[in-house]
Structures are given as C-alpha cells and as structure tokens.
Amino acid sequence: MNRSSTHRSLRSLLLSVGAVGLLFGLAFGLGLAPDASAGEAKAVAEAAEQVATGDVRGEVRLRKRWRELKDRSEIVVYLEGVPGDPPAPPEAVHRIRQHNKSFSPKVSAVVVGTTVEFPNDDKIFHNVFSMSRSMKFDLGLYKSGTSKSVVATRSGIVDIYCNIHPSMAAKVLVLENKHFAVTGEDGTFAIEGVPAGTYPVVAWQANGDAYRGEVTVSADEVTTLEIEMIAGRAAHEEHTRKDGTPYGRYR
Ligand SMILES: [Cu+2]
Predict the structure, then answer these.
(1) Which label site among 55, 93, 192, 243 has the fewest CB atoms less than 10 Å from its CB?
(2) Is 138 a domain residue?
(3) How would DSSP label each residue in 140-193?
(4) Residue 211: domain span
C-alpha cells in the first residue's frame, strides 16, 4: 500500500467513524498509519473534522419551441436545504448599478443577510423601490454619483424598479445558502464545496418556469448535471409605480 492510498483509507475511516480520539486508537491499533509522523496524523485528523464536500457542475439547455437557444445566461442554479451555512456575513455587499436608465446586472442572486447597494451612475435622478412580498423598500429619489442600499433579510424573488423610468427593472433572487451559481451565455455552472448529501436542485429563470430536480453530492467528487428548460416569454413585464398608479408618458 503506497503512502497516498494509506492516507486515503485512513481518511475515509476517519470520516466514517467520526470521533477523532477513538479513531486514533483504531488507526494505530490496526496499523494503518505506522509511518505517519505526528504532524501528518494531526493534518489527517483535522481534514476529517472538516465537512466532506464535493462539487456540482453542469449545463443548462434552453429551448423555445423546438429551437435550442444560444444565450443561456442569467439562470440561477441553486441547492435547497444544505445544512451548516450561516447567513451572509455583515460585510457581504452586492452591487446593482443604475446606468443608461437600466439596472446592471438585471438578474442576480444573493444570500440572506447580504447588503444590496444601488449606486446611481447616471447623470439623472432615479428612485429605486420594490413592492415584493419578501422585500418591500423605497430608497427615494437620489442623484448622480450617490448610492443607497438595503439588506436582504428574507429569501424570495425581489422585483426592483425605478419610480421614474418604467423600462428599468431588475430581479434579485434571495437564497437561504451560498450554494448557487448564475449561468453565463454558454449555460454552464459550477457550485463548489457542497457538503456531501442529497439535495433538491432548482434552476430559476426570470421569465418562465423553473426546473426542479434532485442531486446527490459525494465527498471529493464532481456530480454533473444536465438541465433542460423551456424559455419563457422575455416580454417586458407590466408594472406600476410604487403608489400603484401607471407610469406617465415621459421616458
Ligand atoms: Cu430611473
């Protein structure tokens, strides 16, 4: 048995039994680590104390009728019910810029507890608000070069608008844990460092139905996932101003 396979078997033994003190007795008693120095044994024991994790990688394929779409960006793939994750640390900040009368990014995801900042990088005033159930806020009117922010305190979909410009719209998906990824144009995604286990997996698009499935993550392994979705209508969503009245004719 070479050294690395000795380590591997010791490590899996450590993982399967779990109690480090007991394991040391076992490991030495069984003669599995006769050549491991105290330092090496300590490193192995520390690795066993950490949660065993694996990665989830894959690709989202997007169809519209029978046509495969080339652009498969802005789809949020996330895992539900992953244990052991604290909410986002207080310093976690996500920026949604206001530029050329539009929000950027238009679709994004954050973990509960993240501060979402809305810098106004236009020469004109904007008025950022949301009437979404999980997050209602009104940042008021503010000028070029200034910024306001809000903390995402509850999970859910947050629709963000400007009270002056009807074409300005952004969606933020607030999630319970950090195990998510947003696809690029090629539809690929990677969710790394997921504690081993079986979890519901969701692929969410801003316009259209979400995909729901299940994924099993194994320690030190990459699970691949191919997700097929039907693209929804990318039509401009009708919405009112914050007081419920329609937008005027000015653009
Ligand atoms: Cu605006």
Answers:
(1) 243
(2) yes
(3) EEE-TT-EEEEE--S-EEEEEEESS-TT-EEEEEEESSS-EEE--TT-EEEEEE
(4) 51-85+179-236
How far, in Å, from the CA of 109 to the mean position of ligand 1? Answer: 22
Ligand 1 mean position, distance from CA 225 (Å): 39
Q: What total number of domains does the chain contain?
A: 3
Is the C-alpha dihedral spanning 98, 132, 89, 50 positive or negative? negative
Question: Within a domain: residue 249?
Answer: no
What is the whole-number distance in angstroms between the Cα of residue 125 and the centre of ligand 1? 6
Cβ neighbours for 91, distance < 8 A, ≥ 6 positions apart: none
- The answer to whether residues 39 and 55 belong to one domain is no
- The one-digit pLDDT tens for each residue of the chain (251 residues) are 344 443 444 444 344 444 444 334 344 444 444 455 666 656 555 555 578 999 999 999 999 988 999 999 999 999 999 988 777 787 899 999 999 999 999 999 999 999 999 999 999 999 999 999 999 999 999 999 999 999 999 999 999 999 999 999 999 999 999 999 999 999 999 999 999 999 999 999 998 899 999 999 999 999 999 999 999 875 556 788 999 898 886 54
Cα of 233 from ligand 1 centre, angstroms: 24
Whether residues 36 and 64 share a domain: the answer is no
Domain boundary among 142, 176, 210: 176
Q: What is the rounded CA–CA span in Å between residue 1 and residue 33?
A: 11
Question: What's the CA-to-centroid distance between 58 and ligand 1, angstroms?
Answer: 37
Are residue 36 and residue 68 in the same domain, yes or no?
A: no
Expressed in angstroms and rounded, the spacing between residue 181 Cα and the centre of ligand 1 is: 28
- In the structure, ligand 1 is a single-atom ion and the residues with CB under 5 Å from it are 126, 162, 164-165, 168
The verdict on 134 and 166 lying in the same domain is: yes
